[in-house]
Amino acid sequence: MLLSMTGFGKSVVEAANKKITVEIKSLNSKQLDMSLRVPAIFREKELDLRNRIGRRLERGKIEATVYVESTVSESPTQFNIPVMAAYKAQIEEASKALSLPLPTDWYGLLTRLPEVLHNENIQVVDDEEVNQLYMAVDEAVEALMQFRAKEGQKLEAFFSSRIDKIRDRLDEVPQYETERVAKIRARIEDNLSKVAVADYDRGRLEQEMIFYIEKLDINEEKQRLSQHLSYFIETMNGNYGQGKKLGFISQEMGREINTLGSKSNHVEMQKLVVRMKDELEQIKEQVLNVM
C-alpha cells in the first residue's frame, strides 16, 4: 500500500474552560520538516508535541497549529491607574526639561506602554488540559494519516495506469526489430558501395557487420525494463514507506528506456521511446509525493 505525504487533519476537544483545536497539514519533503505553533500556555509541551507528531508522520513538510479558546466569560481588561499616572508624570517632566510639546492623545500614548493594561485572569494549565491537548493532537494526526491513505490509493491507481502504458509500448517494440536490423544492414552496404575501394574481404565484412548489429541488440534492455516494471508494482503493493525505493526504481527504468532510444535507429521505435519517457516523467513527478 502507498501513503501520500500530502494530507490534512483537524481535531477539536474541550477541557475545563477551554476549547482546544489542532490543525495539521502535510506536504512532500525528503525529510521531516516541522513547523509547530503553540499558544504560550502550552509552550513547555512543544518538544513533546513535536516528538508525538514526528513519530507518526515520519516524513513531509509539516505545519501544525494549536489554538486555544476560553469557553467562559472573562473579566474585562483594566487600566493600571498608578502605572499610568507615573508614566504621565515622567512625560510631563520630560516635556519641561526638553522643551517639547505635550502629547495631544494621552490615552492612545499611555495604553501602548508596558503594564498599563492587565487582566485579572491567570492562565493555569492542569493535567486534564494537557491530556486533552495530547488527545487532540493524536486525533488530528490520525485524521491526516487517513487522508494520506486515501491519497495513496489514488497514487496507486495512477502508477498502475502509467506502468501498464509503458509495458504496452514495450510490447510494441518487437514488431519493428526485424525491419530495423534489415535497414541497418542495407544502409551499411549502401554506404560501402559508394566508397571507391579496390577490393575487400567479404567474409570479414560480414563478421564486422554482425558485431556492429549485435552492439545494437536491445533484448537485454527490454528484459531489464520489463523486470523494473514488475518490481515497481511489487514494491508499490508492499509495506508503506517505499517512496524513496520507488524513486530509485523509476531511475533505473529511465536508464533502460534511454538506452532503447539510443540503440533503436528506427523512427517508429523512437516514437515508442518518447511515449514511454512521457509516462515515466509523470511517474517520477508523483513519486515525490509518496511516503
In short:
This protein is an alpha+beta fold and 291 residues long. It has helices at residues 46-57, 81-98, 106-110, 127-172, 177-193, 202-215, 219-236, 243-264, 267-287; strands at 7-15, 18-27, 32-37, 60-70, 78-79, 117-118.
Which whole number gives the mean pLDDT?
86
Measured as a percent range, the helix fraction is: 55-70%
Beta-strand percentage?
5-15%
Unreliable segments of 5+ consecutive residues: none
Along the chain, the helix and strand elements come as: EEEHEEHHEHHHHHH
Count of helices? 9
Rg from C-alpha positions? 35 Å
Number of structural units classed as domains: 3
Give the strand order, joined by hyphens, for the main sheet.
1-2-4-3
Estimated structural class = alpha+beta
Number of strands: 6
Q: What general form does the structure show?
A: elongated
User: Major beta sheet, specifics?
Assistant: 4 strands, mixed
**For the terminal residues, how far apart are their CA atoms?**
10 Å
Which descriptors would you attach to this protein?
four-stranded mixed β-sheet; Ribosomal Protein S5, domain 2; 14% strand; 9 helices; alpha+beta; two-stranded antiparallel sheet; 291 residues; elongated
Explain how this protein is built:
The protein has helices at residues 46-57, 81-98, 106-110, 127-172, 177-193, 202-215, 219-236, 243-264, 267-287; strands at 7-15, 18-27, 32-37, 60-70, 78-79, 117-118. The longest helix has 46 residues, at 127-172. A hairpin with a 2-residue loop joins strand 1 and strand 2. The chain folds into three domains: 7-73 and 127-148, 2-Layer Sandwich (Ribosomal Protein S5, domain 2), CATH 3.30.230; 78-118, no CATH class; 150-287, no CATH class. It is of the alpha+beta class. The strands form two sheets. The chain has a four-stranded mixed sheet, covered by helices on one side.
